[in-house]
Amino acid sequence: MKNGSVFAPTEISPGVVLPVHECPENLVGVVRAAREYRLIALRQIVSGERMFRIEGELSLRPSRYSVQVSETQHVDLNPGHSAEEILDRYFWRFMNHHCEPNTVIRGREVVAVRTIAPWEDVTFDYNATEYDMADPFACRCGSAVCLGEIRGFKHLTHEQRHRLRPHLSTHLQRHLESATVPLPSLVPA
Ligand SMILES: [Zn+2]
Hints:
Elements (H helix, E strand, L loop, with lengths): L7 E6 L2 E7 L5 E6 L2 E6 L8 E4 L3 E3 L7 E2 L5 E3 L6 H7 L6 E2 L5 E4 L2 E4 L10 E2 L12 E2 L10 E2 L7 H6 L6 H9 L11
Parallel strand pairs: 9-12
Antiparallel strand pairs: 1-2, 2-3, 3-4, 5-11, 6-8, 7-8, 10-11, 13-14
The structure holds zinc ion (ZN).
């Protein structure tokens, strides 16, 4: 990131100053901290609020950053976009995974599933959109229900798939419903 004007120093809480890029409409921003980029809320977002649309080019193959939006389609970015363009238009790319996320993806819209406080990370569950990830990784979200290795829906147990049902994208809901295997016996906790 060579363009210093893309990120402005912002005090996100008393005494904590981070370089923040404010995305259009000032709903979310991208912060750069500890050599990582993260998408954060810039104001309080209420549960059910449609936040932004995942813009980009459709690809038939998943990549490290793509988001799966149907059985065969993945939203991705072709090479050649400037850093500023990515921050202004394709900032969804900086949404991290969380095993207890605060958004879900409906079609190509990112929707809050609970109140999101200002400066909180905006996250979604990659297992709820991706069938078989191009780039699995070890999750460090810290949630009590963290699954550890995140590889995509294909690699979940039947019980894990059913637990994820409220967060699943339409194409994975269809997949779950079309499965011929009997439902696992779900014992209430
Ligand atoms: Zn996790």
